[in-house]
UniProtKB/TrEMBL annotation:
Protein origin, superkingdom: Bacteria
Organism this protein belongs to: Virgibacillus sediminis
Organism ancestry: Bacteria, Bacillati, Bacillota, Bacilli, Bacillales
Protein name as it appears in the record: TIR domain-containing protein
SUPFAM superfamilies per UniProt: Hypothetical protein MTH538
Domain Thoeris protein ThsB TIR-like: from-to ranges: 14-110
InterPro entries, alphabetized: ThsB__TIR-like_domain (IPR015032), ThsB_TIR-like_sf (IPR036490)
Family annotation (Pfam families): ThsB_TIR (PF08937)
Length: 140
């Protein structure tokens, strides 16, 4: 998950995504890993490495901790987002923590949910260069 060039700034990213649509998450992770001259660490909660919580309140607290330690929150802005209360909660946490939000439109996606467009600091297309440029531009 880390670039091999240690002289670069390490961008700490939280990728908000729906577990039912993991393909985009893993592809984005791969794109960031392969981006030239870009170092990042992943603070996301992928399905294969879920948080050990028993209640929604515990999960929300854990998500707050994950997001608190980041420079930026990336949202894979597929139309399925409205079916995930957790993506909406992650957006709310990012706003509460004053974390910049970059929405990424998945390849082939024609529309982006209006709520994500309104909350995001920027909406970018599905290309490594535009995503990395946006992370650099908006990271705290």
């Amino acid at each position: 998950m880390y670039s091999t060039n240690s002289a670069l700034k390490n961008y700490r990213c939280f990728i908000s995504h729906a577990w039912g649509h993991n393909d985009s998450y893993y592809k984005l992770e791969e794109m960031l890993d392969k981006a030239p001259r870009f170092k990042w660490s992943n603070h996301s909660v992928p399905e294969h490495d879920s948080l050990d919580t028993a209640t929604d309140a515990e999960l929300e607290k854990e998500l707050e901790e994950q997001i608190s330690g980041t420079n930026i929150v990336l949202i894979i802005s597929g139309m399925y987002y409205s079916h995930s209360k957790w993506i909406l909660k992650e957006i709310e946490i990012a706003e509460d923590k004053n974390k910049p939000i970059v929405a990424i439109k998945p390849r082939g996606q024609k529309r982006t949910p209006m709520e994500i467009q309104e909350k995001a600091d920027e909406l970018v297309g599905w290309s490594t260069s535009s995503i990395v440029s946006s992370i650099r531009r908006h990271s705290l």
